[in-house]
Amino acid sequence: LTLARDEKVLNSFKLSFNSEVYLTNRKLLVKKGEDTQSIHYGDITSVHYKKAVSSWPALIAGALSLALGMIESSALLYFLAGLSFLLLIVIEVLPLKRLEITILGVKKPIKIEGEKKVLESLMKMIEEKRASRVERRG
Fold this sequence. Notes:
Layout: E1 9-15, E2 19-24, E3 27-32, E4 35-40, E5 44-51, H1 56-72, H2 75-93, E6 96-103, E7 110-115, H3 116-137
Antiparallel strand pairs: 1-2, 2-3, 3-4, 5-6, 6-7
């Protein structure tokens, strides 16, 4: 982690999938494996909180399997429908969520996955830093 002389790490978060996030007094550092992205708070345009995994594929697969099971009367299709709905329940209960950070001039947002409580805390701190940057400009 390379910082400027007057830069200090204010907080750090160890997240899932070999990810770490550092909040400094100047910028946000997102480390995924060997890659590190440096983002100045003023360049962050938005921060969104989402589920890490979409439940739509499991819902559609379950509904199709159930419908085909009724038409074909196949035990395998009923089993697949049940499995899909069980997967749907697991997806909804999982604590893994995702923050998507949109940066000025960058098409794809940065995606950070982790536990809900940790990401909520991280999001709050990023928003506070963004707000303090706006106040200094205005």
